[in-house]
């Protein structure tokens, strides 16, 4: 029997709030707690096959995905503080969960705080917002707020007024090309849309219009040069720093230069929806909706051809070795679902006539729920973790001490929540990843669940 409190518009989302979700994250986090901070590496992918199947492969601490695992910890902390009814736990875990999550989150945050002024990457939003911004919002930790501010100004330092964009990468190297000269190349990727939220947040926090203007100008440059006329997207555009004009449009992680990499398209949906949320300029909402329309049209091509068509292909144009079982990217779907939910919320605040014209009859809430529902059905890992029962016969003193005792986990053999993501399957990539667990797929699944709670839909 399904739990009616976890059902939205007849979509059962119980898995997002399960004990297993919390136990898996605690399982992995406690392993990191045994290492001295600052941590040197962070969870990244979980292979489904091979000698290390089921266990996180980690990447160096300065890799762009470092913020997502601590972001998962803080997503659970937000639930436990604000929505305790929406986190399924045995009763013995509740007294100690918040304290342990905060301890774990702060431990994983040390390295991120230390790198908050980096100017060698555009990914500062991905790095600091999932954990440090949430730490500030939930606990008032001013060290975390200062790191978020540092990160915004570091990101803004990569803006170039000639190109009118923020430099995404300093170099791009694979087996096909080696772009390393920053004086003649200026690389911008579609993913950059989702780091603009950091600039808007701090721009308003510090009343600094320059940050807001940089974010908005960058969004305009993406519209003009990275989106195609049908609102599909290139992955990577190389601008000339001398002229400010594009000199090549290509891919680094998609199938080929002219294909549409599904996760890139998902970043566009969410990034333009976020930009509208800050600016209230309907042009950005319309852009988000048109990017979403393209994404949804391409997913519908799978209806009747393969199971779970609302779980997107890794690239909408890629050839398929097995047409009945094509390679997917679950992360693209859950990222897009987050963007669709922001679009849905935005439309609710507009006059009915304008909202209907923009949406053209699409119900973005239902579509987002369908994507997540099919994702859970296809890719939610069923090797569940759980919290072990406490030792019988505890004295009253022992029960008090249990609040600070480490939670004991009956461990899973697969440490991600979701399977079937594809990080990079470009034929020229130095290292190709496909069909695995992925930390930011899990993070955006949890964030989607929290968005539903914040909007009162659950």
From TrEMBL:
Keyword GTP-binding: no
Keyword Hydrolase recorded: yes
One annotated GO biological process: polysaccharide catabolic process
GO molecular function, one term: chondroitin hydrolase activity
UniProt keyword annotations, A-Z: Glycosidase, Hydrolase
InterPro entries membership: 6-hairpin_glycosidase_sf, 6hp_glycosidase-like_sf, UG_Glycosaminoglycan_Hydrolase
Family indicated by similarity: Belongs to the glycosyl hydrolase 88 family.
UniProt-recorded name of the protein: Six-hairpin glycosidase
Organism: Clathrospora elynae
Lineage of the organism: Eukaryota, Fungi, Dikarya, Ascomycota, Pezizomycotina
